[in-house]
Design brief:
By secondary structure, the protein is an all-alpha fold. 52% of the residues lie in helices and 0% in strands. The chain is built from two helices and no strands.
Length: 79
Amino acid sequence: MIKNLLHWMDHGEQSSGFPPLLQAAGGIHDIGVGIAIIAGFLTSVADLGLAGMMAIALILYFSQGTPFVKATPDASGES
């Protein structure tokens, strides 16, 4: 995420369809939540933010139909 803050969701040359500004907001959010949890500052609030971000990630992941776990470890495709 940090290396390519505006396009971290893209797959190579294929665009993810998410605006770069939202991708940057997601990356900055993860960094901020991680720092807040490590510092112990408003940990419960930071945990709620992280849980919300992960819920959105799961919804987007399952809506694309990508399997969560491959049938066999050497099967082709993404997981």
